[in-house]
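User: quick one - fold this with pyridoxal-5'-phosphate bound?
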Amino acid sequence: MATLSTPTFSTSRHQIAGLSVAELAKQYGTPLYVYDLRLIEQRIADLSAFDVIRYAQKACGNIAILDRMRKHNVVVDAVSCGEIQRALAAGYSPQGHEIVYTADIFDAAALDLIVQHKLHVNCGSPDMISQLGERLPGADVTLRINPGFGHGHSQKTNTGGQQSKHGIWHTQIDDCLRRADQHGVTVTGLHMHIGSGTDLEHLSEVCEAMERVAMEVGRTVTTISAGGGLPVPYSESETYVDLDKYFQLWDATRNRVSESFGHPVTLEIEPGRYLSAESGFLIAEVRSVKKVGDNLFVLLDAGFNDLARPVMYGAQHPISVCAADGAAVDDRETVEAVIGGPLCESGDIFTQREGGFVHSRELPMCRVGDYVILENAGAYGFVMASNYNSKTRAAEVLIEQGQAKLIRKRETFDDLIRNEIIPE
Ligand SMILES: *Cc1c(COP(=O)(O)O)cnc(C)c1O
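Assistant: Sure. Structure tokens for the protein plus pyridoxal-5'-phosphate:
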């Protein structure tokens, strides 16, 4: 595996995957999500050393994306009944662990569907073991373990430690094995999704915790999963993780577990963001450029109803500009601009920082009619879109072998009110 260096982010972009941004915008309208399949394929190839790549579809779940993942032998993780149904609709088989349900609870619909298809479950709470065992005695399960510590700054995305609702607390393995025994359930997999970012020292602690838990559970374990959380850089101050070292740490853990047990152990990785983030671009049109006191606001037809990460997490997406006529804008003077959306809410700002403070970005001067592209928007982008302010959700387009293909129609007003009823 090659370790990637941080890309340079240009603030001028007139093409995506060789196609004109302005042409795409004219053909499909704005706001528009565009995915470059080649970038997904490259990221899949980066991880080829792992035995199994399991895509966390919650990052970007369009069934066309899932179909292409499937054709590259990438299996899927599903965190809800709807995600199981998406995977089935995209052609995944319910057999052979192609779909694994990972959650901390079952709702009634998810449990029914799992029982119907005998899907493999990654249990994030002791209750799930009992509830599954009652319906599917003799099932094999994976346990998602919270090793007692987490990582990361964002309280909203921390996935370990005692503040996290995720996983089975590391001191409760005994109780889980007892529950499993009661129903003839076998623990064949162990899973930790902590997300060490680029911190390999932290990762080695996660690996050690995995090894300890594997020894405690014993020889029934045939698969360990490293979870997701592989980072992608959203700015030039961020980096990728050293993938070679990342793999080596997990591979060594797997080998030690395998040696103690005397049988092969499969090593899975479960990325969402890493596979899809960089492939996605949200194209919006500039609708107003206005001075407000000392600030220059550039207002787009896309808002946090289309891309929520900046508002939810203070996430900084790379931003680029394309002229209305499709030309590059490298020759324009640069200005400090605050990029915002159309929503009736002052927090609808793409250039904010965590805590909601309005910031500006140095960008080429924008004019009404230009296009602004929010980049690295392929993970936790469209999937978190909403109909707030009665906005219809954007269309999605996949670029494959130089051709743009519509993979989701823009919503219409009829879609918006489809399930609403005015009683007599
Ligand atoms: C969200 C999630 C992932 C993917 O996380 P990324 O940070 O997008 O890689 C993987 N596994 C589980 C269980 C998750 O909930």
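One thing worth noting: Residues 56, 58-59, 77, 79, 102, 193, 195, 227-230, 270-274, 379 surround pyridoxal-5'-phosphate (CB under 6 Å).
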